[in-house]
Design brief:
Blueprint lengths: L5 H15 L4 E5 L8 H6 L4 E4 L2 H11 L4 E4 L8 H7 L2 E5 L2 H4 L6 E4 L16 H7 L3 E5 L12 H13 L4 E3 L6 H6 L4 E4 L1 H4 L6
Length: 204
């Protein structure tokens, strides 16, 4: 791997797994990992990867399909649902009925808690309807506003946990390289990390 050697990634990954515990799935974000570099992740012992783009997902899985468990963590367009169904075990970013109607795999509903127009996701009051309409919704995901202070993310993570409890949902995808510790403290069952493993040159 051109940024960090697989042995270093393996060491960082092992430390992270030990820190967060067995109840938290570490999803390694591969948006900035090239097709050729994916083999280094397998060598490092990475188990679950999350891809943002359907086109990249297809290319990477064609070459490395059996090496990982695949999640989709990018914005899910309804016309990409078929690709994601065939490639992934979980979607973190369901936010529209059109995509939900086409999904056949488990999904997490992306919830917008920040009020930022640039962020996708459903409003909290829409959760109940999605849960009623789609049996494959098993949890929630959110992206708090970008900040250098992990504590600033805590209210959003706490609110997501409250919403999950309210609707009887078990899984919470929240927290990235910058704020995963706070997310785990607030009940995350999945965290999405990239920079933490690859170095500052790679975004989470």
């Amino acid at each position: 791997m051109s940024i960090v050697a697989p042995a270093e990634i393996a060491e960082r990954y092992a430390r992270l797994r030990e820190e967060v515990g067995e109840g938290v799935t570490v999803v390694v974000a591969t948006k900035y990992v090239s097709l050729g570099e994916m083999a280094g992740l397998a060598e490092a012992g990475i188990e679950v990867v999350g891809e943002n783009r359907a086109q990249d997902l297809v290319a990477k899985q064609a070459r490395h399909g059996d090496a990982f468990r695949w999640h989709f963590i990018g914005h899910l367009q309804s016309n990409k649902a078929k690709v994601v169904n065939e490639a992934c075990e979980l979607v973190h970013s369901l936010s529209t009925d059109s995509a939900a109607r086409r999904l056949t795999i488990p999904a997490l509903l992306e919830v917008s808690l920040s009020g930022e127009e640039s962020k996708s996701g459903v409003a909290p009051e829409e959760i109940a309807g999605f849960v009623e309409r789609y049996a494959n919704v098993r949890g929630l995901m959110t992206m708090p506003p970008l900040t250098s202070d992990p504590e600033a993310s805590r209210p959003y993570f706490r609110r997501l946990r409250e919403l999950a409890l309210e609707h009887g949902l078990a899984d919470l995808s929240m927290g990235t390289s910058q704020d995963y510790r706070v997310a785990v403290e607030e009940g995350a069952t999945l965290i999405r990390v990239g920079e933490l493993l690859f170095g500052a040159a790679r975004a989470a």
